[in-house]
Specification:
By secondary structure, the protein is an alpha+beta fold. It is built from 4 helices and 3 strands; from the N terminus they run ααβββαα. Strands 1-2-3 form a 3-stranded antiparallel beta sheet.
């Protein structure tokens, strides 16, 4: 599976990710044997992982429930969490 294909599938499930200035990126972690999904917005970052079996099933159109739930929680947390304050030279 290609990381760009998985990103595109996530955007299909949550089309507001790009529209609401939430960036999504995925990378495969060899040590965990899982896909790491990272969402960024306003200096906030949240990550989750998807087991390869879950990601494969989603890409085949068989099941995206787990992916949808995990990414949905990340999006919700990003929207509700206050932005990280930048250091002001203290």
């Amino acid at each position: 599976m290609d990381k760009n294909e998985l990103c595109e599938q996530i955007r299909k499930i949550y089309p507001d990710i790009g529209a609401c200035a939430i960036d999504v990126d995925v990378n495969f972690d060899e040590n965990k044997n899982a896909w790491i999904v990272t969402l960024n917005k306003d200096n906030k970052t949240l990550t989750t992982h998807l087991e390869t079996e879950e990601a494969d099933a989603c890409m085949l159109g068989q099941q995206c429930v787990s992916l949808g739930i995990q990414v949905g929680e990340l999006v919700k947390n990003l929207r509700e969490r206050p932005a990280t304050r930048q250091s002001e030279g203290v």
